[in-house]
Design a protein that fits this description.
Length: about 270
């Protein structure tokens, strides 16, 4: 997608669906005025999104940082599932649910307070699909969906290869092709073993890095808590000193009054 088309797509799929057709017509007219008939034709073929798709697109354009966080969580989920790290997978699954709900709420907020009965369930379904499928994630990040997406499974699933088969009167149709696999050679086995070894080293390095970061965060939080406690103790001590000084001054004042009274009686 060239820059000119990308700019048009970003504008079109961020406007509310009810404004899409009018804005698309404006962009087609602008492209024709610039004598770019190819761009005008491409823009004219862009499809109007559903409300759910618009909400996802809106978030992608207005808060790309949140979509990036979603993709990072998706990568963590895939790694944990691939390596069967159960405890981490359970923790990430909890984050998955809260993240999907939070992104849907943010999309609704971006849509404005006047929008009622938004299809947030479809929005959450699309974000959940992005977490499970890297292709869907890329489409969400692009911000040009025309309809919401759904993923009924969890994790990545292998896609069958498809080929076009010429039929009879019914015309061509798609048929699933199962690729043939040859027996692995010694070189193949060695390469796979080396790849597994490198993957294990990478995993261990990442785990060590995560452990160090977690420990550093714990130490930082402990230090901050100790600093807060020290500041609190200091404030309490200062208040106690101030109260004592005030009591001393009050006592001195009472002594002075008593001395003056005795002097008057003499």
């Amino acid at each position: 997608m060239d820059d000119a088309l990308a700019a048009v797509v970003a504008r079109l799929y961020a406007v509310p669906p009810e404004e899409f057709v009018a804005v698309r017509a404006e962009e087609v007219a602008r492209a024709r005025a610039a004598r770019d008939t190819g761009l005008a034709g491409t823009i004219g073929k862009l499809r109007k999104p559903t409300v759910a798709a618009w909400l996802v697109n809106l978030l992608a354009h207005e808060r790309p940082d949140l979509v990036e966080e979603l993709l990072e969580l998706a990568a963590e989920l895939r790694d944990a599932q691939r390596e069967l790290r159960g405890a981490e997978l359970r923790e990430l699954s909890t984050r998955r649910r809260s993240t999907v709900a939070a992104l849907a709420r943010e999309a609704a907020r971006l849509a404005g307070p006047d929008r009622g009965n938004l299809p947030l369930q479809e929005v959450e379904g699309t974000f959940a699909a992005a977490l499970a499928d890297s292709t869907v994630a890329a489409a969400v990040q692009e911000g040009a969906l025309t309809k919401s997406l759904e993923y009924t499974g969890f994790g990545e699933t292998p896609r069958p290869q498809l080929r076009l088969v010429q039929g009879g009167d019914d015309g061509p149709y798609l048929s699933t092709v199962t690729p043939k696999r040859s027996a692995p050679t010694q070189d193949d086995r060695e390469q796979r073993a080396e790849a597994r070894r490198r993957e294990e080293e990478r995993r261990r390095a990442e785990e060590e890095h995560a452990r160090v970061v977690k420990q550093a965060r714990r130490e930082l939080m402990t230090a901050l808590q100790q600093l807060t406690d020290a500041e609190t103790a200091k404030s309490e001590a200062e208040r106690a000193v101030a109260a004592a000084e005030k009591a001393i001054k009050s006592a001195e004042k009472r002594v002075k009054i008593a001395q003056d009274a005795l002097a008057d009686l003499s």
